[in-house]
Fold each of these.
Amino acid sequence: MPKLKLTYFDFHGGRGEPARLALSIAGIPFEDDRVPGPDWPRRKPSTPFGSLPVLEVDGAIVTQSNGINRYVGKLADLYPSDPWQAALCDEAMEAVEDITSEVSATFSLPEDQKKAQRQALADGPITFFLTRLQQRLEAGGGQYFAGGRLSVADLKVFVWIRHLRSGKLDYIPADLPDRVAAKLVAHFERVKNHPGMKAYYAKHGIAE
Ligand SMILES: N[C@@H](CCC(=O)N[C@@H](CS)C(=O)NCC(=O)O)C(=O)O
């Protein structure tokens, strides 16, 4: 196994969390480099694209969260070997990326604009992506997004649903997933109850 160091911000979510989860579930040792917010301006220029996550593999680095998810998914046996199932896994991850980018664009807005844009996102694109991801889950059998078992796609969707339901996104109702995509919430619970996930969150002292 290569020597791994995963650098991401110091919170339990976001684009770096699925790779942390995948490595932890598989019991693959890695350096969990968590960047405190105040350190970021100093470290940002040394990253290839001015953003995180960054994965270091035997001293070489690679960026882009879904590429990192695929790479660690292969190491962790959480990425389908079948090309078609791999494409379905990628589809779910890229869909989460699409909607994440829309929400991320609201973070630095003035409060009144943030409120208006997030309310519009909740009623429009977020509801759309929730219902369409649910449809794709159901089309694949309803349990997991690819290959009939846990993959990095399930981890990425899990992290997104967890964020939405956390209530930490002002102006986006925390009960939105439960109201519009109950089967996606059931998937969230399924992933949360995976023994590897329970062990990870117990280790980090997180209730949910
Ligand atoms: N396409 C990139 C986007 C990376 C990205 O925007 N990361 C955010 C955190 S989730 C970041 O580094 N923000 C701080 C900044 O841009 O200064 C990926 O998928 O990894």
Amino acid sequence: MRGLHRRTILAALLAAPGIASAQGARPRAAPRASLPLVVLDPGHGGADPGAIGPGGTQEKRITLALALELKRQLEGQGRVRVALTRSRDVFVPLKRRVELAREREAALLLSLHADSLPPGQPPLRGASVYTLSETATDPLAAALARRENLADRAGGLRLPSVSPEVQRILLSLMRQETRAGSERLARLAVNALDGDVPLLQQPLRRAQFVVLKAPDVPAALVECGFLSHPGDEQALRRPEHRARVAAALAEAVGGFVGRRVAA
Ligand SMILES: [Zn+2]
């Protein structure tokens, strides 16, 4: 299973005799010759400024500036296509951000944020990278599994019309693969950031972020520093610092996509 992309599994299952049925099983979309799609998700936006630093810096502006810089660098490398969940100062609901990555069959989703602590807390600083908590129940996948007509409801998923039991197995395989991909993406990001950007102690973390809950898109959330820390706030305001963060993340994305293509 290792190294196989989720749609490879599905394609194999769809092609297996006795599983692919002409009834209701839509043919898998033809493989696109184009490059893998990376979805960048600048946190917050519009009426939701996110964290606000002591100097008045709004998280939503930092995340958008960082996402645009990362997009520029990734497109310059020419190995991926890039889409943004927002490219302006607008509010986009979290679930919509996830849907966008799923609908477009993204190879990965990288959500960009800046952390903050309330006054009186120890003045933490540094970047960290989150994946979805493994102990989290997965209501999205559970809801998906319960749905009778999964293929029509599941966006990019093309599940054959098989029994609910087999659908559950397919989803479980897909989620295992997605989780492994997310962990690998997060490790690559931490390794790439290390040395170039101050890191939080134990920078690899897990939490139940809604934006990381797609069952079929590997995803990580980068907190690129603490806006509540004056040093981090000053750094994140500087385009040169954001370019350094973006370069590290571009390296991580390149590593992730490179091995996926090679697998
Ligand atoms: Zn945030």
